[in-house]
């Protein structure tokens, strides 16, 4: 499945998502690697097989093999970290904030691509997963590396649209005739 096929699969009421996919696929505030990796990492974080298949098919070839692995690694490590650090942030007991995580996170130190790109992809996934601590930490790192607010916002816009596409397609699948028959 391609990006065009993915857009075609969206219902008419999701026209804005189609338009946003098109404009973000050419987002000028990101490098090609940053843009493609943001789409790949966000697709994996969306947990939608159709969205992941389409976006990895579209944007994976725009990445080197190392960058593709790094985008996948960002989605993978953030799936773990976002749960852990969201717990630390939300739990009332303060003593958890003083404990070391004791989780292996070696890929963050050696992602196989420029640190700024890996941080950007980690931010996109953290936005999808709703971890405020991780969002703050990655945004701070991106700003330290000189990435501007337009680029940071673009990656989060990609995450938002990819997540919305996955939610829309999953919702439509649940409303399909076979799903309606099961519910009846």
Key features of this structure:
184 residues; mainly alpha; AhpD-like; globular
Q: What is the end-to-end distance?
A: 32 Å
The tally of beta strands, per DSSP, is: 0
Strand percentage lies at: under 5%
Cα-based radius of gyration, to the nearest Å: 17 Å
CATH superfamily: AhpD-like
Note the total helix count: 10
Helix content: over 70%
Q: What do we call the CATH topology? A: AhpD-like
Secondary-structure element order, N to C: HHHHHHHHHH
Compute the average pLDDT: 94
Largest sheet report: none
Overall form: globular
CATH class descriptor name: Mainly Alpha
Low-confidence stretches: none
CATH architecture: Up-down Bundle
Question: Could you explain how this protein is built, in words?
Answer:
With 184 residues, this protein is mostly helical. The protein has one domain (3-183): AhpD-like, CATH 1.20.1290.10. It is 73% helix and 0% strand. The radius of gyration is 17 Å and the shape is globular.
Fold topology:
Blueprint lengths: L2 H7 L5 H10 L7 H15 L2 H11 L5 H26 L15 H4 L5 H15 L2 H13 L4 H26 L2 H7 L1
Helix pairs in contact: 2-9, 3-4, 3-5, 3-7, 3-9, 5-7, 7-8, 7-9
Summarize the structure.
By secondary structure, the chain is mostly helical. It is built from 10 helices and no strands. The protein has a single domain, classed as AhpD-like (Up-down Bundle), CATH 1.20.1290.
